[in-house]
Design brief:
By secondary structure, chain A is an alpha+beta fold. Chain A contains eleven helices and 13 strands. In chain A, helix 7 crosses helix 9.
Chain lengths: 405, 405
């Protein structure tokens, strides 16, 4: 996979990622939902039925379209995904459910399929009814095209400052397959199953049950390792469509593993872009926890460190405050012996049971880049996991204090 | 109990609270640990053995003095508590344990008791050894006096902007007893057992086992309902000494209940002061969740709302963003039906299954005072609980970015 990220973490070579796989088309549109006049409606279509897997927010205040999409993905098959930004269609009761259902019906009429072959979602402000007059006029005008992936990615953005797209290819039985994905951030992100909106496509023939297992594995190790602020969204979902358009036999065994690796590479790249584009963030924080008995222990400690506002605030001003790493790790619910713990900031070991005496200026210098690498070893075992977060700045507070209800 | 709080939530009539009960003396001292020259050493003494109960931080990166105090409170009896501020004696290995132990020995020599009758704690910066030369010189000079409670309360402060003291009295069998308490905040506060440093005294005769049950109940409903930032401290502890100096029979039954109520009143008053004095906070946020099946459900939802940075940021600028209340509540792990949920900002019902259409300016006006009252009813049962938090301001970030390692 290409790793040519710019300073913000975006990858221009991945532009149009969700339509790189064969048999997919997409588009974006300005329906007028956003007051800004920016694109706010997006459609992704497979030219044939695609097997599908999806994960949804665990938030109990679930938005209307999530209820509809859960029902529509239950049979493991989809033809299309329709999404609006600018309005979350959440906390909108019966009317909200009817509106989400109507979005799938309008889309089904356009591309000639059943309404339950359409995934639907919304992202934006909570508690307002969708402007259905705008959507009834806009959806029939949508014209998905084979190079429409970038427009799709742009149209699902809310508070994002750049598009998040990633693509990878893999070979199996002499066929080259593509896996593409795009996602939107940038707040209300915390590990609790798919806490952002994202779309993946592949032209590989992956049966729905294998797809589900691969997708959950990739989500657990990428999106579910990102935290921006500890809050979780009412709407966010991740969905993948595998339409088999590149031909070949259904993937199993080694070829399924190759798909798995490509999918994890794409989802990890998107997860890292998400962390880099956290609201108000000036840098990504990468936290590897090693030396635990299980992956789950390493995951829990890494995610707990990543969400600590005290650590995030310190790093925003280059303060290498490793005491806050210890403090944050301590509430993860994982037992360890402080005497055996070691902590590194980049390649500097700053704690080894007690302070190692690294001068503060030296450690501070390691926190100045666009990414800070922290590592904590618990000395209890051999498992490890990495989580990604971002610093906490005054801009985050300003931004979220002023965001319109 | 007196409720004459000033604008910041302090109660001047409670000054010297921990020495209001008979048989207690206390003092504060400037040992020179804090560069600021502010008092940084405090001693509380009972003139006779007191039964005791204590709760400690659940943080795995436990500070040295917490290990020592756990051992010293295990037998349910204490004579004194010695505390320094300005240095947490955390992440200091074997040396840290030896230093904490020596603090109890120095105190025991001063007041003529055993070292294991002394509770010890430290609060301040993590990862530095205690300046034992200063403490060896200072502790023998301490002169606890019967009206030293206010000096004690002042000397345990770190980032607090005001002293936190509260006092209540109750009667049993014709005897009037006092319960006093003081606490320090103001960051790294989140519900996970005793996440602040606090000291309670009473001259009532309460046996250690009853005292333990009463104390845990009061902590669960007061200190464990306060969150400032979701982080939890490595050092914090709450301890109570009951010395029976006011005489009378050991409390049981109705008289124990009277003690219980007085203790809960004192700890709740301190908890609310803590929330009001959160780092960078301009207001207290009081969140009552009702209509749940169990108190635990109400507690979990209330605490999860209280810690949401998105809601806290919105309220800092008077944005009555109830969508963020729904969003935050949704990740508490408590099941509910969004259609049955109601939300109030002060006395205004803003959500009743769907938006009620209250004009934003009207709701915003209810968020302008020194305390914002939020209520969420889940419509599932009859239990309720209240949590206290504070708003999130740019000042919190500035403060914590600049705090010295």
């Amino acid at each position: 996979m290409s790793e040519n990220h710019d300073a913000l973490g975006a990858n221009s070579e991945a532009e149009g990622a969700v339509t790189r796989a064969q048999g997919f088309s997409a588009c974006g549109f300005t329906a007028g939902i956003k007051e800004s006049g920016l694109p706010d409606l997006a459609l992704l279509v497979s030219d044939r039925p695609a097997s599908t897997a999806a994960v949804y927010t665990q938030n109990q205040s679930t938005a209307a379209p999530v209820h509809i999409s859960k029902a529509h993905t239950a049979n493991g098959s989809l033809r299309a995904a329709v999404v609006n930004s600018g309005n979350a269609n959440c906390a909108t009761g019966e009317q909200g459910l009817a509106d989400a259902r109507e979005m799938t019906q309008l889309t089904a009429s356009l591309i000639d399929c059943e309404a339950d072959d359409v995934f639907v979602n919304s992202t934006g402000i909570i508690g307002h009814y969708l402007p259905m007059d705008l959507l009834r006029s806009a959806i029939p005008q949508l014209q998905p095209v084979p190079d429409g992936g970038a427009d799709f990615a742009r149209s699902i953005m809310t508070t994002d400052t750049f598009q998040k797209e990633a693509v990878a290819t893999f070979e199996a039985h002499g066929v080259t397959y593509a896996v593409g994905g795009c996602a939107k951030g940038a707040g209300m992100i915390h590990p609790d199953m798919a806490t952002m909106l994202s779309f993946f496509t592949t032209d590989a023939p992956v049966p729905a049950d294998s797809l589900d297992a691969c997708f959950r594995y990739a989500m657990d190790r990428s999106f579910n390792m990102v935290t921006i602020d500890g809050d979780t969204s009412t709407n966010d979902s991740a969905v993948i469509l595998a339409n088999g358009a590149a031909g070949g036999e259904p993937l199993t065994g080694k070829s399924l593993k190759a798909f798995d690796s490509a999918l994890l590479a794409v989802s990890t790249a998107l997860a890292k872009m998400m962390a880099r584009d956290g609201e108000g963030a000036t840098k990504r924080i990468s936290i590897t926890v090693s030396g635990t008995k299980t992956w789950e222990d390493a995951r829990d400690v890494a995610r707990t460190i990543a969400v600590s506002p005290l650590l995030k605030a310190a790093l925003s001003k280059y303060d290498p405050n490793w005491g806050r790493i210890l403090m944050a790790a301590g509430r993860a619910g994982v037992a360890y012996d402080l005497d055996r713990v070691r902590i590194w900031i980049s390649d500097l070991c700053v704690f080894d049971g007690t302070a190692t005496g690294v001068p503060e200026e030296e450690a501070s210098a390691k926190t100045q880049g666009a990414e800070v690498f922290l590592r904590m070893d618990l000395g209890e075992g051999k498992a490890e996991a990495t989580a990604w977060g971002c610093d906490l700045t005054e801009e985050y507070v300003r931004f979220n204090a002023d965001y319109v209800t």
